[in-house]
Amino acid sequence: MTHTDLRKKFIEFFTTSSRNHKEIPSAPLVPENDPTSLFTSSGMQPLINYLLGETHPLGTRLVNSQKCFRSQDIEEVGDNRHTTFFEMLGNWSLGDYFKKEQLPWNFEFLTQEIGLDPQRLYVTVFEGDKSVSKDTESIAIWKEIFIDVGIDAKVGERIFAYPAKKNWWSRSGEPENMPPNEPGGPDSEVFFDFGQDLKLHEKSPFKNQKCHPNCDCGRFLEIANSVFMQYQKQKDGTLKELPNKNVDFGGGLERMLAATLDNSDIFQTDLYSQIIETIYKVSGKSYKEEENKPPMRIIADHLKAATFMVADKVEPSNKQQGYILRRLLRRAAVKYRLLTNVSITEQDLLEIVESVLKTYENTFYFKNINHDVIKNVIGSELFRFTLSLDKGMREIQKISRADGKIAFDLYQTYGFPLEITAELFARKGQKIDIKQFEQEFKKHRELSRTATKGIFKGGLQDQSEETTRLHTATHLLQQALRTVLGDHIRQKGSHITAERLRFDFSHPHKLTANEIKKIEDLINKQIEMNLPVSMKIINLAEAIREGALTVPGVNYPEKVKVYSVGNPSTGSGQVFSKEVCGGPHVDFTAGLGKFKIIKEEAQAAGIRRIYAILQTNVPDKQNLAQKRD
User: Which residue among 266, 293, 317 closes a domain?
Assistant: First the structure.
């Protein structure tokens, strides 16, 4: 089975009339208006508002394949199953069906649609804790499911109960780590058994331990996870049941495909086989040699992730998403240099990037995206790094001690990220003095730590009212820019925190002080008029015909939400702004306060960036839903 076959089967399984799910497009890797996460790391992340009660344009049953990236898994890549980039097959119930429908459908797809042997499937459930009881309902359902295929599923043999660390899901992990407003709940996972021979491999560090689905010996591989998202963290630390119980299913495409092939190495599926073959072609190193597998897996994963990031307009830099991209590219280059033990050029690695693009040529991921642009961005970064790579490698060979200052010098002079230097020192049995490295780093320059504080931990913003107001303000800003500067203005990206908004837009020139004042005055006029903000759900084609703005390059579902600021029927004159957007927004503009642009700068060629704030002392929460007299 190919990755195209599996992706298609999953979508078709849930969109049939009997299950009636609507397919939604994959969201970008960089979340829109979510300052708490650098990347989309799960299928549910773009759907947070809908899981919390917002109405989705396509209804209560959804399905898709979502591209994802998890930076916390960078150090795990190298074994047979971990990657930073992956696709998550997902289906959702937004207050519709629940456990008794989801778990049988999950099992039916795995066994009847893609042909996995029920005897090789094992499941896990939440064992309960002081705040939430044991998931006995899922246990009972699983017992019935297995009995129907002739398997006596006993707890501890076929069904395993684990604590929150293993069988509770939220973006922030266990309940005590969830910030206020974060949704989560118990989950039930399905594992595929590749056979005990894997555990008995002489090189396995788990060979003498008792085997079970979560033991990490390599025998069992998690392929499906049904999250029953029924709780929301409160400000007082308690968990409260959501009004509507939701299902959030996630199945890793790479892992599920490996199970259908009965091969525990996901890098031997067709999602990676062409990429690995290209690495062999340009390096001359065979994947059949055990010592070559970890570096070849890292190179394949990191260059794939980098290709998808650049396609979503991330560029290498020293902060946030750009830093992660730079780290991936440089780590791939170092691993390739160590694999080949010869000098390299960016062209070696660009051939691997080309194989990534070819692997996905039959999907929608790179449609309407210029491949040369992707290769130019990656090639430029690799060119700069490979110029100093050999010199840096020679310096490392000379080092006899592993202090933090030396590590910083390698970073500053040759661009070696700290973790790469640490990996290379580890070969000599040395450890970097991390504290000393950080001290040296601070001496040289101060990172914008306050701007990124908490950005990796996930979760929703505590101050959702502030972000809601600023989100609405971006709509006013885009229309004001178009009115003052011209209709060529289109949104190229945005990022909102509780303190400010950041808005990227297409424009060839720096804004003058007079233009900035006109934009501010126009926005504040709309705020003073206390215009209503309304929403309707219509077909995308109809929304575009009506003049609703979209973000270029974003894939939208068939039906969308359109938010309008101003409404002729209420006597407020012409509609000022109309955009396709997921929300949320305030109900009237008077609750926004005074709009102020605090900075305008170049972001890239032909792209400008505005930072703005709302100066206001909102008297109470009713401003978010105030009614016109």
Answer: 266
The stretch 399-412 carries a mean pLDDT of: 63
472 and 401 in a single domain? The answer is no
Contacts with 327 (C-beta within 8 Å, 6 or more apart), sequence order: 74, 417, 419
pLDDT band at residue 573 under the 50/70/90 scheme: low
DSSP assignment of 476-530 equals HHHHHHHHHH-TT--EEEEEE-SS-EEEEEE-SSPPPHHHHHHHHHHHHHHHHTT
Average pLDDT over residues 442-452: 43
Examine residue 584 and say whether the peptide bond preceding it is cis (omega within 30 degrees of 0): yes
List CB contacts of 372: < 8 A, sequence separation 6 or more: none
* Closest among 414, 378, 369, 374 to 394, alpha carbons compared: 414
- 593 pLDDT more than 50: yes
For residue 590, give the nearest of 548, 549, 622, 562 by alpha carbon. 622
Place of tokens 């899922």: 138
Closest CA to 581 of 519, 496, 522, 497: 496
Give yes or no: residues 498 and 558 share one domain. Answer: yes
- End-to-end C-alpha distance for the chain, whole angstroms: 62
143 closest CA partner among 162, 156, 130:
156
* Overall average pLDDT of the 172-182 stretch: 86
For 450-470, how does the pLDDT look when each residue is reduced to its tens digit (9 = 90+)? 333 344 333 333 346 788 899
Domain holding 337, by residue range, is: 282-447
Contact criterion met (CB below 8 Å) for 576 and 479: yes
**Helix and strand element counts for the chain (H, E):** 18, 16
Number of domains making up the chain: 3
Residue 26 lies in a domain: yes
Q: Are residues 222 and 289 in the same domain?
A: no
